[in-house]
Design a protein that fits this description.
This protein is α/β, with parallel strands linked by helices. It folds into 2 domains: 202 residues, 3-Layer(aba) Sandwich (Rossmann fold); 97 residues, UDP-galactose 4-epimerase, domain 1, CATH 3.90.25.10. It contains 12 helices and 13 strands. It has a 7-stranded parallel sheet, with helices on both faces. Strands 7-10 form a two-stranded parallel ribbon. Strands 8-13 form a two-stranded parallel ribbon. It binds nicotinamide-adenine-dinucleotide (NAD). Nicotinamide-adenine-dinucleotide binds next to helix 1, strand 2, helix 4 and strand 5.
């Protein structure tokens, strides 16, 4: 790799969003170093880039500080996406989540500080807003994480902003809303809706719609998210938090229509909002971000790539009920045991 090229690091680069970001950075001509411990990521997400001499993949836990330091040395930008990102298991194994998402972020921040990187882009989550009161939800809304995944991502963001204010590390934090697109994560855990529905469609099973399906989500196509990362890295702003969303909520029932399948309904889950809707005015004004992919175009491209979901688990109402037992046990307020004073 030539010394004059721009060196960048993508942690979590073998994951869903990280692999798309890596692709875009390679296309920009950067020397890209991926750090990933393959907890949920897959090397095949980067297989189409395997002939790229400007890409190096380091199979590594970001908590391994010495080895992470070595990879960060000489990097201009760090995009920190490494995290455990499935929500349901975070309720069963909270310490695994804080280790990966909070400790992992602290180690990445420290390695970035020592390396003197010029931009550190942290990947935050709209789950920090919990059940918001204002729609569209601005960055100034109160943070009310409802489960350990949301808490861990919020703490990671606070750490990143702390490293910015104490050590002057140039940090931008992007709060992503419901990302979907090619290579969407399909681990054994019950998770993101598009992956669940497309695996069900391939198996000829009905889509398991939570509640009556009228709830809406701000589905954001992954190439729009990648564009936000690239804009954040190019800007000179720091210590700033941005929502990244389409700004156009779509109901689950509309997705069922677009993916064209029968539906079966499963119980609504406590702790989940009826709507997510990003106020994107800050990122539009500051970085010129404008989402380009409509939900109709995005859903069509997911259907075109449905083969990706062949090996994904096929969920049924019964298996979802078992997988989400801890969720109902801990997040249903009517079953919560109050602490005695
Ligand atoms: N997908 C979404 O809708 C969404 C929404 C908000 C925020 N995010 C955030 O975006 C980021 C990427 O999420 P994704 O959906 O692509 O999930 P993903 O699971 O596909 O990607 C996460 C990657 O991080 C890797 N990883 C986990 N722990 C690690 C560790 N300790 N060291 C090194 N690598 C590690 C995993 O192997 C995986 O490749 C995460 O930080 C997630 O919290 C995602």
């Amino acid at each position: 790799m030539s010394e004059s090229t721009r060196k960048v690091v993508v942690t979590g680069g073998a994951g869903f969003i990280g692999s798309s970001l890596t692709e875009a950075l390679v296309a920009e001509g950067a020397e890209v170093h991926v750090i990933d411990n393959l907890a949920t990521g897959r090397l095949e997400n980067l297989a189409h880039l395997s002939s790229e001499s400007r890409l190096a993949v380091h199979e590594l836990d970001v908590n391994d500080l010495d080895r992470t330091r070595a990879v960060f040395r000489g990097a201009r930008e760090v995009y920190h996406l490494a995290a455990l990102a499935d929500i349901v298991p975070s309720i069963e194994r909270p310490l695994e989540y804080t280790r990966a998402n909070v400790d992992g972020t602290l180690h990445a921040l420290e390695a970035a500080r020592e390396a003197g990187v010029k931009r550190f882009v942290y990947t935050a989550s709209s789950s920090c807003y919990g059940i918001p009161e204002a729609f569209p939800t601005p960055e100034s809304a109160e943070m009310r994480p409802q489960y350990p995944y949301a808490l861990s991502k919020m703490l990671g963001e606070q750490a990143a902003l702390h490293w910015c204010s104490v050590y002057g590390l140039p940090v931008v934090s992007l709060r992503l809303f419901n990302v979907y697109g090619p290579r969407a994560r399909t681990t054994g855990s019950y998770g993101a809706m598009f992956g669940v529905f497309l695996a069900q469609k391939l198996a000829g099973k009905p889509f398991t719609v939570v509640g009556d399906g009228s709830q809406t989500r701000d589905f954001t196509y992954v190439t729009d998210v990648v564009d936000a990362f690239l804009r954040a890295a190019k800007s000179s702003l720091s210590g700033v938090v941005f929502n990244v969303g389409s700004g156009k909520p779509t109901s689950v029932n509309r997705i069922v229509e677009l993916l064209d399948g029968p539906a079966v309904h499963i119980p609504k889950r406590p702790g989940e909002p009826d709507c997510t809707h990003a106020d994107t005015s800050r990122i539009r004004d500051a970085l010129g971000f404008q989402p380009r992919v409509s939900i109709e175009q995005g859903a069509r491209s997911m259907l075109d790539q449905i083969g990706h979901f062949e090996r994904a688990p096929v969920w049924t109402p019964e298996s979802i009920s078992v997988a989400t037992e801890a969720w109902f046990q801990h997040l249903d307020p009517s079953r919560r045991v109050e602490a005695t004073p």
